[in-house]
Amino acid sequence: MGVNYLHMRGVLHRDLKPENLLITARNRIVLADFGIANLNVNGNEKNIIKVGTPLYMAPEIIHKNYYSNKSDVWSMGIIFYEMCTLKLPFSSNNLNDLIKKIVNMDKKPIEFYRSHNKYNNNINSILQNICDMMIIYDFRQRYSLNQIIPHPFLQQHFLSYN
Known about the structure:
Layout: H1 2-8, E1 11-12, E2 21-23, E3 29-31, E4 38-39, E5 45-46, H2 59-62, E6 66-67, H3 69-85, H4 95-103, H5 123-134, H6 145-148, H7 152-159
Antiparallel strand pairs: 1-4, 2-3, 5-6
């Protein structure tokens, strides 16, 4: 919801990663580190330099193409995947190898740990579906937050929390 708030005001965070999500004493998640945030007045901005953390960087930023709110959505998808699996979908000790994995969409499907599955047997497919809405290589095909937020699972388990 915080990222959606930014996007509705024309702001891109541009460095979403677990280290920039803080948990308050009331168990709320808040965004931090707006050091490379950018006002995105026209909806598309030319990325002159690569900014952000490579593990969470959207393909359009890697290629120095135009980027939009959907670049933040990619990063959120990587975080979501990591929360579900306790692993990164694309990882390497070598930056060039990492970029190749991202470009080739070489990621494993989500496999939620059965011993921690307190929901139902369909949880893997539900989580995979949400993740797949965010981690789409072509940003023009990637879902926006306005399309993701209404997902019934998110509404039921996260967004209705006050």
